[in-house]
Amino acid sequence: MTRTTDTVALDDWQVVGPSARITAAAPCRTRLLGQDIVVERAADGSLRTVEIGNDGVRGAAHPARDLYGYVWTTLGDPPRDPLDMPEFEEAGRRFVDCGKVTVRTSPLRIVENFLDMSHFPYVHTGILGEEPLTEVSPYKVEVREPESEIWATDCRFYQPQAAKSATGGIDTQYMYRVSSPFVTVLYKTCPAVEGAWDLIGIYVQPREETVCDVHIFMLLLDDVSSDAELISFQHEIFQQDRSILENQVPALMPLDPGAEAGARADRTSTVYRRWLRDRGLRFGVHGAAA
Amino acid sequence: MPDPQPAASTSGETKSIRLPSPPHGFSHDAWYAIGGTSALADGAVMPARLFGTEMAVWRGHDGICRVWANRCIHRGMRLQFGFVEGDRLACRYHGWRFGGDGRCVHIPSFPEGAPPDDFRIARFRSTEAGGLIWASTGTPPEDSPLPAALAEIGDGLVFCRSLAVNAAPDVVAGLAAAPVFPPVAADAAGLATPVSRDGDGALRCAWATPDGTLEAAYAARRLRDGVTVAEVSGKAGRETLVLLTQPVDDRRARLHVLAAGSGPAAAIRRHYAAWGRRFRWFAEHPGAHVASWSPVAAARELVQ
Q: Least packed by Cβ within 10 Å: which of A146, A158, A184, A261?
């Protein structure tokens, strides 16, 4: 297996698994950006990542840390910390580890699908959307500094069943956030508490350019549904997305603005692709050797 | 090797379809059968592949069959998973609707807007004739895909089956011209002996049982890219067998089998459908001795 040479992808933090599953007795053997690694926890709780060569020999060590319930690591030298989510400090918040799903496509296609609302009536029919309420009203997209994160706000969509606990259709409000090429979180109307947001996020771990493990989490103000019900709801949604993701051609995502046709509802995707171009990312990109 | 472009194309799509060099004996500017007409009902969509190029084949409720590039211009979703609405094809991902000429006519996320004229799916030339759907990755010189020899047989031609063969297209076409086993009952033994080649290029093969009695003869003529017509004579009299090789990619083909004879259509279909399975086994086992084939051995391989 060949580790990527793309420093934009390497000089960043990626998630490799939930903190609770990486213990002193259970190191995590996995692959990140084409590099086989083992992530180990010492007796004092500290973490480190060690590269494993093609011959099985242990190589260079890299930092790893716990944050928001997951273990994050890097094979390079990130200029900043992973995203900040103050909601994790709020009382009454419930964290749900929804496990991981393996998807055979570029991490960029996975993130872009997560940011898109116009597929709700067709891919998540009867749940997150349905005909004839297919219009995506205009929303705002900006890149916020100094973190250089993409935020889409004023998003809204009618949803027949917005969440596991929903008892009828509602106009759901959304905000979408991209904090690094493979990390995205959405904020959606909390059915239980007016004015509050529930968080659902995906941390895409690219094992190779077109094989990813997607770690899914939720941070909710729900005290009605069981973990199993919430996880199964997320998995149903994600399996529907996977059927699409593994049938997009090419798997690597083209960033050239003329390569794929866009509509008004694709503003977040347009900004995401331009943002990736500006960063010079090659990993997961069509036409760029990485 | 210059890459021929699909017949009707969009500025956006043409440059993204690169056609590889075709295998020996096949060219882009020709018609190939890609399935039986009966395989595609009104409102159905199915995939097909020619020279490694993915296609989405669909039939509107207007009854017209169309062959398009298997990729939506929006986010690259395979159109084979789309759904048909009237005489339009919709993409499964965002429901974009495309009319018969490939133009996008409706974008559900922005229903009041008119999609730009250049939002168009790349299309391939296609037609239906002789009970088959035909397509081309280029521009065939003839309007009709049926060679004159087939058109003569007319309505008597029975579509028997299509089958996938895990062998290169030129191997399949080669075997169609000179099969190593007789097109008669499965228990006939003997080796194929090419007896002669006629002035008109027909290859004649004959089979004999161990006691020397002639059982069957097969006179094949390769008409053009992937089309072989054979006259089969045996105990049942004389029949015409039409074998159409579809070049799926470098390593795979599909074979479409049609036959005409004096017996009932159902019997002809059943016989040559079974023959097709034996053909596939020999195409996938080059050099195998005819005596090594048995239905049990072939079935066992499928399970392993």
A: A146
